[in-house]
Protein: Hydroxyphenylpyruvate reductase
Organism: Solanum lycopersicum
Amino acid sequence: MESIGVLMACPMSSYLEQELDKRFKLFRFWNVPQKNEFLSQHADSIRAVVGNAFAGADAELINSLPKLEIVSSFSVGLDKIDLNKCKEKGIRVTNTPDVLTEDVADLAIGLMLAVLRRICECDRHVRKGLWKSGDFKLTSKFSGKSVGIIGLGRIGLAIAKRAEAFGCPISYYTRSEKPNTNYKYYPSVVELASNCQILVVACALTPETRHIVNREVMEALGSKGILINIGRGPHVDEKELVSALLEGRLGGAGLDVFENEPEVPEQLFGLENVVLLPHVGSGTEETRKAMADLVLGNLEAHFLNKPLLTPVV
Ligand code: NAP
């Protein structure tokens, strides 16, 4: 397989990079200064693209690689891949489902606790030596708060199970009601937001779910409501979120993802009811290794004409 060209879209895992380098002819796209020149020079040898949540394969890249057979994403989300173009051209697509579910769900619960109990602010309070001048103010309880989840897929369900263990009543919104769950279904995001204290975004990013959390949803969640986003930044209308938080129309937010990563609205930096994370939902040693092994397994299966491990297209 050493002669098969694999284009890695951006840096994502040094282990994956090393293993790809051992097995294939690896091209690191981020190191290429003249991208168009490079593509016309190597287009005939590149048969695979490895992308992630930040860079994948858009129509332009796919069109410039006539020998492309497979796009293997180091992510479960597929929003950086032009799936229709892949289908049209018979290009296979794989992702990394399941192996990251627990980590992302754990982090969602961590964000709920951090926002409500002001864990990060408490830590800053101690580090700044402020404890000596007085106790930290009282915060808000997490156990028992009602949790509404947008997207009851693998991650949404794992969040629901964890929140249930904290005594939280669970409700959700998806395009259709799930038959195998007792969680309360709301047929619209606004209804879900009106009926929960913590709203979690855990759905896939598609043209329909872009800004699924808009001003109306934030108004419905209200001045005591907490928004948790571990989906994708564009799920939330960020300008509206910033003004809702600054004006106190929303109670708080725990955000792992942002509209223009790694740019984060600086107006949020001074707010103690907001916890900001640098898109680390799946960012543990164990999970990133498992994700890398899935990418490698899918590529090897494809080039050995075996069934793909986690096929999407
Ligand atoms: P999944 O099992 O495919 O679940 C996706 C869910 O999205 C399903 O419940 C689906 O429900 C719902 N959905 C799709 N379109 C919708 C729409 N128009 N309106 C409402 N709900 C919609 O995927 P997963 O493994 O749980 O992953 C979910 C997402 O989490 C990923 O796509 C990714 O963006 C994000 N993620 C983030 C991180 C991070 O680091 N923060 C890590 C991993 C994943 P229906 O089809 O029934 O509507």
Residues 76-77, 97, 100, 104, 151-156, 174-176, 202-206, 208-209, 230-232, 256-257, 279, 281-282 surround NAP (CB under 6 Å). The chain has a mean pLDDT of 98.
